[in-house]
Design brief:
The protein has 279 residues and is α+β, with helices and mostly antiparallel strands. It has ten helices and nine strands. The strands form two sheets. The chain has a seven-stranded antiparallel β-sheet with strand order 1-9-8-4-5-6-7. Strands 2-3 form a two-stranded parallel sheet. It starts with 6 loop residues before the first helix and ends in a 14-residue tail after the last strand. The N terminus and C terminus are likely disordered.
Length: 279
Amino acid sequence: MAVGMSTSLYHSTRARHGAFWALVTGLLLAVYLAVVHASSPIGPVRFDQLFYSDEAAAIIRVLDSANSVARDTVSPSDKWPTLFGMDIELVSRGEVLDKWSHARIEITRELQIVDRCRKDNVCPAGAQRLIDLSSEGAGRSGRARLGFINRAVNLAISPTSDEAQWQVPDHWNSPLDTLQSERGDCEDYAIVKYLALLDTGMSEADLKIVLLRSIFPNEDHAVVAARVDDEWLILDNRTLTLVRDTNLRRTVPAFVLDQVGVWRFVSGSRPPRTRGWAS
């Protein structure tokens, strides 16, 4: 950086770099998927067939190699005020990052399905449900849009554990499959809300999924955080009420998922007044 470059110009330059590498990521992913589809002896490969396959791992490696440079240019203060007033650090590997990378591919693919539905008027059941849910927030903005989407998704899905539905401890279903089955756990609610809010036109920069530890009941939990007027509001499948992040009680935040990747909350950085056990 040249001596004397202004702070605003510096951040603008970094933002352009981030946008450039995001474009590169999308192009590389599109090329890779095209090759996989073309080379498959049985025709196009469905994402659910790739989920735990070598091809899926290769897709994630393509994404990670393209995103690694972009991640190096991004700090949380450049993008958004930190949630819960806590410090965070970027995660470079692990199960949460792997699952979120798969989920992001699925979210992108299913947004394209919904777009085609609107053009062709021919929709899978899950896509039509998503369109119906998104319409709940159509023409609204701010808290009103968040409130309508939160309510619509909460009422559209019956809470069902992964053990009961999939016979495994933890499974992140695709949002359109969740809407078609009308069953899911907290991660499924959160991913559907994330997709629905994107479909209403909200920016990815204003949307996060937060993984946290609930003190009462004592269990892992997932919610959506959405930014309105420089405040983060929490969309929770347990309530229709929107709560500001700093007012959320009886929780220990663990991870935040967004368009950059996965961030880990730094232990001990949360202000005492917002700690769950101090409320």
